[in-house]
Predict the 3D structure of the following.
Amino acid sequence: MIYEFRTYTLTTGAMPKVLEMFGEAYEHRKKYSELAAFWRTEFGPLNRIIHVWPYENMNHRDEVRAATVKDPNWPPGFAQLGLVVDQRSDVFQVAPNSDFAAPGQYGPVYELRDYTMKIGMMPKFLEIWESAIGARKEFSPLTTALYTELGGLNRFIHIWPYESLEHRAEVRRNALEGGKWPPKGGAECVDRQENMILTPAPFSPLQ
C-alpha cells in the first residue's frame, strides 16, 4: 500500500465551511476509494487540513483519480471559492512494523511528528526504527509511520493518538524514563524536526 497525504492551508476562518463541503462531497467520492484519515491542525501550522488516501499502488491511484474527475460532485468546490492558500501532495511508504491503523476510535488528539533525514541516512534510520518501535508501542499505540516516496524527499513521519494533551505528556515521560525511547542513534540521522497536534474531522475513519 501507498498513502497520499494531501495537505491544504486554508484562509483564516475557512475551516468550518471547508469541513462541511468536504464531508458532503466525500459521500460521493468514497465509492471510488475511501479515506484513511482526515485531520485538522490545532497546534503547529494553523488552518491546515490533511486528508490521507490509501492506494494499492500508483496505477491504482491514477485509476481512481481518473474516475473521480468525471464525477460532478468531486472535488468539493472550496478551492474555487478562494478558501485555499496552498496545496501539497506527498506519497508515502509504510515504515517497518508500522502498519496504518484500522478505522476506529483512538484519539481524539493526534500528534504528527515530521522528520527530515540527512541525505543518505533513511536506510539506517529505518533499521533503528524497526528494532526500537516495538518497545515504544508498549506505552501507547502507533497510528502509523511512513517515509516519502514522492513529494518532499527524505521525510519520515510518525503519528500517535492520545486521549488528551495530558495523556501525551504522561506517555512521553514514561517512555523516556524507560530508557528505550527515543532509540539510540536515531538523532544522528535527522536534519530537522517538526510536530503538529491534530484532531479528526467528523467524517474521518480515525477518531
Q: What stands out?
A: The first helix runs from residue 15 to 29. The beta strands are 2-10, 37-43, 48-55, 84-94, 109-117, 144-150, 155-162, 190-200. The radius of gyration is 17 Å.
